[in-house]
Amino acid sequence: MRDNRSMSAEIASETPPAPVKTAAGGGLRERKKERTRRTIRMEAFRLFREQGYTETTVEQIAAAADISPSTFFRYFPSKEQVAMADDLDPFMIASFESQPAELSVLAAFKKSTVESFAALSPEDREFEKQRVELLSTVPELRGAVARELERSNEMIAELVARRTGRSPGDFEVRIFAGALSGAMLSFIDRETFGPDQIVRVLEFLEAGMPL
Known about the structure:
Helices cover 67% and strands 0% of the residues. The chain is built from 11 helices and no strands. Residues 1-24 have low confidence and may be disordered. Residues 1-35 are annotated as: Disordered.
């Protein structure tokens, strides 16, 4: 596994991508907050690329974003959360919950994945690729990734339970959630990250994981 310095050296020359949008519309205040949040993430990832994740401090991110450290903490509780925040989740959840009832759970996940990625700009897709690489190459983030897997399991279990009318704690629901989130996490990398890769994982699970 490469360290974060290697990752930084490889992509330091790339133009910093714009983070994924987390809200649409809203009043002037909300739009201003969203711009500030996006600027924080953009500048943070630029610094991660240029000098490494570990070497980057909250104070440096705040200075680059032209805000105070106290303002930074109003948007993110830590530097770790700047890297871990998954802006795709709200879109995928909304899309999944709007899928026709006749679709199977896996088919609904597959369709919501395609729809969510289709809504992203090329810059947003590139940002997500770089975020995936950061999470997979920085040892300091391994604990956070493990916690994210647990959070993902809970989120999927809740979504599946609502769609099927079952409890999130049901044995089958928990196993389904763990299998889905674990399978996607084990086969997602920066080089191929995108809807095609995720759909391939879902189709493999849907086919019964034939070997």
